[in-house]
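Hi everyone,

Forwarding the result from last night's run.
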Amino acid sequence: MDLGTMSLFEALVDDAGLFPPTALPMADALRRHRDDLVAGSPVLTHRFLCPASRLAELRAHLEQAGFPGAGPRADEAGRAGRTERPDEADRMGRTERADGAGRVAEPIRLGLILDTPEVPPLDGLTVELVEVPGGRAVALDIPARQFVEVTAAQLPIDPPPGGGLKIRCGGLTAAAFPTPRELGAFITHCAERGIPFKATAGLHNAVRHFHPGLGTDRHGFLNLVLGVCAAVEGRDPVPVLTTTDVGELVRLAQAVPDGTAERARRLLVSYGSCSTSTPIDDLTALGLIGAQPAATGYGTGAAGAATGPATAGAATDPATREEPPTR
């Protein structure tokens, strides 16, 4: 594995398994997350995204899924984590491991999607970041980074101190997908001001491609990463955001200087994907990362039947494979 190339994709993908189109039940999403932690792919942040409205449901399923329940131990971990930025901790390789019974040693690390008027009581849960809709920061009384969701049309916007912005790259309709020029304007805005950002929706696959069911082109996460690389070097990100040339994208990724990769990933914190296996599959198929440990992919249904691919690392063609719109 080329360690320089791997630095582009390390701790890139947040677990958004609760969100459409996968929309796993809470118990299944947590089991998949636990299994991904055991597999330990460095492409994953091993951070679980959860709507604020579902925290009580999450808490009720933690121990059954093999995680420590919220309590003093989680509180202690949360206080300890306040001395470092979560994305920096990710780069240090902080990953929980399971014991022989499939239980993980550390509390679950959460990204909170604020769909309630305010943050509910956490009762010992460890929240690393809060994603806030509506284009405006909110007052938080927890030591978590805040990412304010905006559109390109709302720029310029400055984030809250210590926080960043969030951009939605797709959705359930063609209108939900920003154009490459709109996405490029957002990336350039963040690069010129040193604003970290998160991305979400529509970024399952590595390479930009046409989705006939939606009647629109879907952004690729490899295009996004390379667009950020272009922006931190002072170049226009739009050309690489629009390309569907798989070979060219791979060549560009392999040629990214270490310094550019580091600056780009300080800017692009992560993106949320409802599939935790597809990004790994695509990067492996493109030869940009080595073969990864087995992961659970989509998890299992309540009756134990597989609801999607069971392992990561299968050879796929990310330029042609069609996936439904994702978080």
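The first strand starts at residue 13 and ends at 15.

Cheers,
N.
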